[in-house]
Amino acid sequence: MLKIVLALCAFLQTLCACGQSVTFNKHGFYVPQNLTEADEQLDKTLTAKAKTKFKALSESDLENVSGVFVVEEWDEAGSQFVKFFSQYVNPKQDAWGYLDWQVRNRLTYLSYLRHLNHQPFDLAKEARRINAQADSVARADERRRQRNILADSINGVYIPRNLKDSFRRLDELLSDTLKQKLRHPHPEYGLAEFHFGLGLWMRNSWQLWGGSRLQQYFEGLGVHHPDDMSGIILRTYSEHLNGKILDEASIKPLTVPAPADEQVPAEPVISPEAQDDGKSYTKEYRRFLRKRRIDDFQSLPPEAYAE
Fold first, then answer.
1. Which residues contact 267 (CB under 8 A, 6 or more apart)?
2. Distance of CA 294 to the CA centre of its chain
3. I need a surface site. Which of 115, 162, 225, 243 has the fewest CB within 10 A?
4. What is the mean pLDDT of the chain?
């Protein structure tokens, strides 16, 4: 069923590409042009139960909200929703100390909370207030990071606990063709040919840059750079496919060299994400893609996720 939904989404995306602007994203979700439309889409997507829960939130609770997957469906580079916010959200991240997508989410959630409670919302005013409170948003980012390093999934993607768990997920996600290439790396380029494909997917989806329990696991092993982390996963997974027993004590930081693009032969399968067949998504995210509805979401502070 999920494959049928994704295939339909791809068809809708193709149709939209022929129009004047992108209206639907790759999963077939309508992308709002403004916050009024965003409120309307959230009304359609959240069930009565979820809306009741959202309506009862305080504004300070919004920094802990996650699992409202449809909002992240809108926040793609170049989407009309992102363009709408560009006049309000400062894109100079180095000057802000936090990321623009976090501000977009915050304003979207605040707008919807006010909408549910029949309260006025002035986007320009709220954006100026957030701009003047950059430190508070940075603190919210740190709270989100603290939650993420305890979470078993981030943005609908399962995060492995350690190397053995990452092997298990890769066993499930990768095609036999790609496993064969990893089992027998290219004699000249070795595993470096996967640095920008599968390696990039792992660094982004498993949050090796942004903070996750897998990233923290590597920190505990003395490995601090995401390139080293993905390189170690690639090397040890290749050894795993060849029957070698994992020896964590032997793991040392060793960045996999990334050859120039023109020197790397093309990979037949770049990454699980590129296939977009839903395998890498969590059960909750797959349910959302299938039903197009959100029945619940998370709104607890980071400490509530501790074991």
1. 178, 181, 193, 194, 197, 198
2. 17
3. 243
4. 81
CA dihedral 45, 136, 208, 280 (to 10 degrees): -10
Lowest mean pLDDT among 31-35, 50-54, 176-180, 298-302: 298-302
Provide the pLDDT for residue 122. Answer: 96
Q: Would you call 103 helix, strand, or coil by DSSP?
A: helix
Mean pLDDT of 30-37: 96
Write out the two tokens for 299: 């709104």
Tokens coding 128: 């100026």
pLDDT of residue 196: 83
Give, in degrees to the nearest 5, the angle at Cα 33 between 32 and 39: 50
Q: At what angle do helices 2-17 and 283-291 cross, to 10 degrees?
A: 60
Supply the Cα-derived Rg of the chain in whole angstroms: 21
Instruction: Give the H or E element holding residue 87.
Output: none
Nearest to 5 by CA among 281, 299, 307: 281
